[in-house]
Specification:
Number of helices: 3
Largest sheet: 2 strands, antiparallel
Mean pLDDT: 82
Low-confidence stretches: 1-5
Radius of gyration: 28 Å
Strand content: under 5%
Shape: elongated
Length: 108
């Protein structure tokens, strides 16, 4: 499947302080009024850069879902019995041992 998207002309929009405050609320960010004003300008600049990218002709660029070329990098689970020996687990505990068990504080 080698479809290409038509170039879309995007005009940059100016984000208002109120829009930034709404975005911050949705993202659960606590911004001061000064930060909202600052980010209004910065986010507007970012949208301007995205508008420039939107003007590029990408009709001859192949769509990309991932760029590493790797297929399946998941390995099989292998049980390593030397780490599962009860004695080894018992000895690895920093807690006091009693009757071949780890002694901990009472829970209830």
């Amino acid at each position: 499947m080698n479809k290409t998207m038509p170039a879309v002309k995007v005009s940059p929009m100016k984000l208002t302080k109120e829009q930034v405050e709404k975005l911050a609320q949705l993202a659960r960010l606590n911004l001061t009024p000064e930060e909202a004003t600052q980010f209004s300008g910065e986010l507007t600049d970012i949208l301007g850069h995205l508008a420039v990218l939107g003007e590029l002709d990408t009709s001859k660029v192949t769509e990309t879902a991932q760029v590493t070329g790797l297929a399946n990098v998941v390995r099989e689970d292998v049980v390593n019995s030397e780490l599962c020996e009860p004695e080894a687990l018992l000895e690895a505990s920093p807690f006091e041992k009693q009757d071949h068990q780890i002694k901990i504080k009472r829970m209830m």
